[in-house]
Amino acid sequence: MTETLRIERHDGDAVWPAVEALGKAVYTPEMLAHSEFHDVDWSDAEHWVLGYLGDDLVASAGIHRRAVHVDGKPANIAGIGGVKTHPDHQKSGHASHILEVTCTLIDGQMAPDFTLIFVETHNRAFYEKRGWRVFAGTVMVDQHGKRIAFPDGSAMVRDGAQPAPRSGTIDLMGKPW
Ligand SMILES: CC(C)(COP(=O)(O)OP(=O)(O)OC[C@H]1O[C@@H](n2cnc3c(N)ncnc32)[C@H](O)[C@@H]1OP(=O)(O)O)[C@@H](O)C(=O)NCCC(=O)NCCS
User: Whole-model pTM?
Assistant: First the structure.
């Protein structure tokens, strides 16, 4: 039987060294070199939802919140970033579990208009199976002092207090997550 994941929520800065170490175990230099997102300058998460087996951190998801513009109109949205599972513990349901807990926390405590995540093409099916939908419009983000369009098709959305937009322009008014 798969060992049960213990899930804890922490403030972003407090646990960053442990999350960064997990990231180094997950993203090998080869994976990073081939990643669609290899040179993206990411925003820091406000909170982390972390999954432990005993004392070992094995899975994570970061929570973001942002006042954005959707087709020029203000909206308050949540973001999820940094979803990852240690390679020794993948395909055991941990990311699914962390994602479910994170969405429940977001819905209950933040009640955003909708939630947005950036996903590489090979992970799109994982999120589609879990109810996320591809945002077919343009997402504008800040990168290295400029506001630019994030690569098409990599943002996925989930309904919140409002139905998530499926097209148009979302200006994140800051860095992506
Ligand atoms: C993508 C990633 C987060 C998935 O993590 P994970 O913990 O392996 O995810 P899960 O175990 O919840 O689900 C993965 C698959 O294993 C399956 N699975 C879950 N438990 C299983 C079990 N006991 N036996 C076999 N398969 C199982 C799931 O059903 C799922 O397949 P599906 O999408 O077809 O349903 C992980 O591969 C990873 O860290 N990748 C590198 C970083 C990355 O790309 N992150 C995503 C950023 S958006």
Answer: 0.96
